[in-house]
Amino acid sequence: MLSNAEYVITYCHMQIRPEKESDWDAVHTVNVSAFETPSEANLVDTLREQAQLVVSLVAEENGEVVGHIMFSPVALPGYPELKIMGLAPMAVLPEHQRQGVGSMLVRAGMGICKQLGFGAMVVLGHPEYYPRFGFSSSPCFGLGCEYQVPEDVFMAMELQPGYLRDAIGTIKYHAAFSSV
Ligand SMILES: CC(C)(COP(=O)(O)OP(=O)(O)OC[C@H]1O[C@@H](n2cnc3c(N)ncnc32)[C@H](O)[C@@H]1OP(=O)(O)O)[C@@H](O)C(=O)NCCC(=O)NCCS
Q1: Residue 167, SS3 per DSSP
Q2: What is the DSSP letter of 177?
Q3: How does pLDDT run across 137-170, given as a tens digit for each residue?
Q4: Which ligand 1 atom is the nearest neighbour of the CA of 103?
Q5: What is the distance between the alpha carbons of residues 49 and 56, in angstroms, rounded to a whole number?
Q6: How far is CA 157 from CA 70, 138, 144, 152, in A?
Q7: 156 touches 122 (CB < 8 A)
Q8: Using omega within 30 degrees of 0 as the cis cutoff, is the peptide bond preceding 89 cis?
Q9: Quick count: other Cβ atoms within 10 Å of Cβ 22?
Q10: Which among 78, 148, 153, 169 counts the fewest CB atoms within 10 Å?
């Protein structure tokens, strides 16, 4: 779990920081509130236990956790040297949505993953939302998704220029994602 002060970002009344164990219940609540089912909240709990590494950040406003984002490593078979992060899930309490909280979480997470040495990111999500952060449809990078999804919802972004230049194949998520 990340805990260094260097990963804490403050914007006016909002703090984006690595989660602590004392945030786990609040993080669960944010995910349950934002999604239609508890699957994503349960996924967060499972990844925290089982993934080799997670970057899990909260957005805290006036002492309340109002948003959460998690990143966990994904694999590209045949390219063990590539360090690629999967962004998922992310959630903001419904009453705090459309106020920029999600954007702050994505940007903070991108910076931290880059500092940790990751060269690229993938996300499976709203094609109207993620391109604003630099994500493009993943076939542009020669990457496919292991799940049957429309091409435009699986997106990728390089954190280091040219990182995915020679990569090709199907991205594999942690097994816990297959239960969502
Ligand atoms: C997606 C989510 C995390 C965005 O957080 P947020 O704090 O509302 O996002 P921001 O305020 O930074 O950005 C708001 C922008 O996102 C867009 N947006 C929000 N939800 C969206 C959605 N479901 N599809 C497309 N765009 C969406 C808004 O239209 C708005 O665009 P604008 O700036 O052009 O008006 C939040 O809406 C949420 O928790 N949704 C439910 C859970 C979910 O869908 N998670 C993502 C799974 S891929």
Answers
A1: coil
A2: G
A3: 988 899 999 999 998 999 999 999 999 999 999 9
A4: 12
A5: 12
A6: 16, 8, 13, 13
A7: yes
A8: yes
A9: 8
A10: 148
Query: How many A from CA of 94 to the centre of ligand 1?
Result: 10
Query: Which of 139, 138, 132 shows the shortest CA–CA distance to 106?
Result: 132
Residue 170 tokens read as 């199907």
The residue whose two tokens read 């949505």 is 97
Please give the pLDDT value at position 1: 61
Work out which ligand 1 atom sits closest to the CA atom of 106.
12
pTM, to two decimals: 0.94
Residue at token pair 């799940």? 147
Backbone conformation region of residue 4, classed left if phi is above 0, alpha if psi is from -120 to 50, else beta: beta
Encode 6-15: b = buried (16+ Cβ within 10 Å), e = exposed: ebebeeeebb
Tokens representing 149? Answer: 């999804």
d(CA 20, CA 114): 21
Type of residue at 175: A
Pocket of ligand 1 (CB under 6 A): 34-35, 89-92, 97-103, 125-126, 128-129
Residue nearest to atom 15 of ligand 1 (CA): 98
Helices (H), ranges, the chain: 24-34, 39-50, 101-115
Who's near 83: CB < 8 A, 6+ residues apart? 73, 117, 118, 119, 120
According to the model, what pLDDT value does residue 12 have?
A: 82
